[in-house]
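Researcher: Here's my situation. A collaborator sent me these components and asked whether they could plausibly form a single complex. I don't have experimental data yet, so a predicted model of the whole assembly would be a useful starting point for our discussion.
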Amino acid sequence: MRLQYPSNVKIIKLPCTGKVDLIHLVKSFEKGADGVCVVGCLEGACQFTKGNIRARKRVEEAQRILDSIKLGGERVQMFNLSSSEAPLFVKVISEMTEKIKEMGPNPIKTALKKAA
Amino acid sequence: MIVAKRKPIEEIIEEVQAYDKILLVGCNECVTVCEAGGKKEVAVLASALRMHFMNQGKEVKIDEITLERQCDHEYLEELRNQIDQYDVVVSLACGVGVQFMAEKYMNMPVMPGVDTCFMGVTEERGVWSERCQGCGTCMLAKTGGICPVSRCAKRLFNGPCGGSTNGHCEIDKNVICAWQLIIDRMKNLDKLEDYEALVPIKDWSTERAGGPRKVVREDVMQ
Amino acid sequence: MKTKTPSKLEKILAAGNLAVTSECGPPRGSDPEAITKKAGMIKDHVDAINITDNQTSVTRLCSLASCIHLKLMGLEPILQMVVRDRNRIALQSDILGAASFDIHNILCLSGDHQQFGDSSQGQNVFDIDSMQLIQTVRHMRDDGKFLGGDDINRPPRMFVGAAANPFADPFEIRTPRLAKKIAAGVEFIQTQCIYNLDKFELWMQQNRDRGLHEKAYIMAGVTPFKSAGMAKYMKNRVPGMDVPDDVVKRMAGVPKEKQAQEGIDICVETIQRLKECDGVSGFHVMAIEWEEKVPEIVERSGLYPRPEAVE
C-alpha cells in the first residue's frame, strides 16, 4: 500500500516515543518547525511499557510552554497509532497539517528568515 | 535535598523583559535532582526565552551555563571572567544560590528561576515531598523517626489532632497524617508506650523564630 | 471531690451532678447582641457556656470579648482557646486578660487548620500544642508562674478543659491520648459529637479500665441534626466525625418537615443512653446555630432544672 502524506512533513524516526524529550520538542520550534506530531504506539501497546504514556505527558508540557510564550500549544500534538494503520496515519498528519496552516507559520521561522 | 519547582515562564519573562543580555545559570546539585534547575531545565528555559524574544522581534543574547554548585564560593567564582558580558543573571539554583550569586556579584541583577519549596525526598520520579524544616533541634529520636514539625500541618508535638481520619490529615486526603505514621512506627518498634510521654514545649529559638541562623565550627575554620 | 477553682462548672461536677454545657459561636461582626441573645436562650438550662475561638478558622468576634459579655450577664463562660493563632506570649496574655474578668474555665484546643476558613493564605502559629497549653494554664495557675519562669501577680484560677475525639484515628491511641491529656493536667473533657454510641462506650470502657474517668470529668458531646442533609454532610465532610449509616438512614427516613424533630429525638435518646454510661459526668450540647432548641433537649433528657452550685 503506497499512500501519500503531505510532502512538507519531515519524519524523524525514533525507537520509541519514550525517547522524545521536552527539549527536543521545544528546540524544534526554536529551529523553525511550524508543528510537531509525536506519533507513538497505541496506549497499552508500548514495547517498553510506558514510553508512549510518558511521551504524551512531555507533549503536554511542551504545549504549556508554547502557550506561555504565545506560540500556540496546539502546534505540538501526540497521536497513538498502530503500525498497520497507514491510512489513519495519513489522515492524522493531513489534519494536523491543515490545522497548522490555519494557525499560520511559526513566528520564530519568520523571525529567523528575517535575521538571515 | 532542597526541592524547588520551576517558575512559570511568564514570571521569568517578566523578570528579564527589560534586559538584552541574559545568562541562565543552572546548578548541578539539588535542583538537578528535582528537575527544576539543572542543565536540562536551563536548556528548555533558554529555548523558550529565545523564542519569546524572537517572537517579539527583540534581539536578545541568551546564554546557558550550569555550575557544580551555587552555594560555594569556588564554583560561583567560575563566572567571574564572563559575567560582565551580561546585564542580568537568572539563577535556577535554590534561593540559597540566587542570594549567594547576588552577594558575590554586587552590581549584577540576579533573578530567581525557580521557586524554592522545602527540604525533601524523591518519593518517585516526579514526586518530591517534604521531610525537614531545619528547626535546629532535631527531635526525631522522640517521634519514631517521623518529624511532626515538617509533616504535621499543625506541627503538634503531642498529636494527632481530632482531624486524623483513616491515616489522612484533615487538610487534604492526599496528605498522610504524620501522627498516624509516628504511631505506626512506634508500634513496629514495639515502643507504643512511649506515646504517652509528654513532649515538652519546644525551644523555637533555633528555628526561623530566632532570626537568621549560622553554624560555626571553630575546629575546621581556616 | 474538692474544688481547686471558683468555677461553677467545677463545683457542679465535684458535687456529683451531671453537668450541662452548651456553646455559642460569636458573630462575624461586632454586635454583642448576637452573643447575648444566644446566651439568653440557653442560660437557665446550662451550667456554663463555651465560646468558640474562630471555629473552622473563620474570623469572628474574639472568644475572650464574648466571654466578657457573658460574664456581664452573670453567666459562666468557658473560654475556648486555640493554639493556631497565638504564640506563647499571646496565649498567656489572653489567659491573664480572661482571669482579670474572673473567667474561670478554659478549653485548650489546637484549632482547625486555617485552610478551612476565610484566611487560607494566612500563617499559623502552633508555637505550642493543645497538650502544652493545658500544661501552661496549670503551670500559671498552680505554680503562679509564667512559662518564662517569672512570678505572676494574681495568677489565673481556671478550671482546665480540653476536647477529646473518641472517633479520630488511630482508635488504639484514643485512650492513651486521653491519659496523656490528663497527665498534662486536664480536669474536664468535652468530647466530639457522639453519633456512634457503641464506639463511644467502647472508648469509655477503655478509659474506665485505666481509671481515667476518675481523674477527669468526661462530658459527652452531642449535636442535634437539623436535617438529613446535615447528617450526610457531617458523615462525609467533617474530618474526625463518625456518623453511622443507620443514623443517616433514620434521618432520611422521615419527611423533610419532620427531620428537625427527629434530629432532636436522636439527640435526647443519645443523652438518655449515655446518662447510664459509667464515667460520663455531663453533657456538652452543641446546637450549632440552633441554640433555641437547647432548653427542649435538656428538659426532655431529664437534666432540668439545673442544680445550684454549692461550695
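Model: Some features of this prediction you could bring to your collaborator: The radius of gyration of chain C is 19 Å. Chain C has one domain: 8-300.
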